[in-house]
Amino acid sequence: MKITDLTLRHAKPRFERYTIALGKGLTLLVMPDGAKYWRMRYRFGDKARWLSLGRPYPETSMKEAEAECFRMRRLIDEGVDPAEERRAQRAAQREHVAHTFGEAAENWHAFRSKAWHPSTALQVREYLDADILPKLSKRPLASVTARELGDLVAGIEARGAFDVAKKTRQWLKAIFSYSRAKGFTANNPAGDLNAIAGKGPGYVTMLTCKCRSFPSFYARWRLTVAADRW
Questions:
Q1: What is each CA distance from 182 to 36, 177, 178, 185, in whole angstroms?
Q2: Is the bond into 118 cis (omega within 30 degrees of 0)?
Q3: Cα 46 to chain center, whole Å?
Q4: Of 134, 150, 130, nearest in space to 190 by CA
Q5: Is the pTM of this model over 0.85?
Q6: Beta-carbon neighbour count of residue 121 at 10 Å?
Q7: Is 77 a residue whose pLDDT tops 70?
Q8: Contact 53/70 with Cβ under 8 angstroms?
Q9: What b/e string do you get for 32-56 counting C-beta neighbours within 10 Å, with b at 16 or more?
Q10: Mean pLDDT, the chain, as a whole number?
Q11: What radius of gyration do the chain's Cα atoms show?
Q12: How buried is 62 (Cβ within 10 angstroms: 0-12 exposed, 13-18 middle, 19+ buried)?
């Protein structure tokens, strides 16, 4: 008898779980509580194995389950164990999500604080909490973009805090360099931030000299000024 979607929908639970075979190793597992799960039976390396497919029926339809089964069969034909492929994908996804910018920044700050003066560590902590972490804390490192960082720094510059913006660029670079070295990510969106750095108001250059030489320096300066007037 040909199995149809109607057949699966009307499959009733029994005292013990049972399976409905749809061919190519695809089966629907019907549980005593009425739940229905897609399973695929296959052989790899002379061993019989089972693999779950998609969501429970009918969230994953019969058509979708058949398409996924076909995709898994193609992997097997290419010499890839679908179960191992799935484990690798899940591990990569966990790695992608687990290392957020906030976690990396905290690790970096803790590491650098060992060499910093306590006041420096406190200052960096305050800037992280005020300007950087509110926007980036929960972002996966691999997802942070250069434009995102550029917009963050530009916002700091927009309020006239150019020195803070400069330090922020330095710290963002340091955090991503630390993260790359630790293997948290291969992403480095902070590398070219200096190329779009804004310019703040000009600074007055102050001349400094040793106290003992100041009198003679001042006398020569007055003579120079007087000569220029004439």
A1: 44, 9, 6, 8
A2: no
A3: 39
A4: 150
A5: no
A6: 16
A7: yes
A8: no
A9: eeeebbbbbebebeeeeeebebeee
A10: 83
A11: 32
A12: buried
- Burial-class residue 61 by CB neighbours within 10 Å (0-12, 13-18, 19+): middle
Question: Amino acid identity, residue 10?
Answer: H
At 55, give phi and psi (nearest 5°).
-95, 165
> How far is 122 from 113, CA to CA, in rounded Å?
9
Structure tokens at 127: 């800037």
Copy the structure tokens of residue 20. 């409905």
Strand order, beta sheet including 47-52: 18-23, 26-30, 36-44, 47-52
CB 13 within 8 Å of CB 34: yes
What tokens does 108 get? 């970096």
Structure tokens at 205: 């250059």
Q: What is the pLDDT of residues 103-156, one digit of tens each?
A: 999 999 999 999 988 888 898 998 899 899 999 999 988 889 999 999 999 999
Structure tokens at 207: 């001349």
Does position 65 have pLDDT exceeding 90, yes or no?
yes
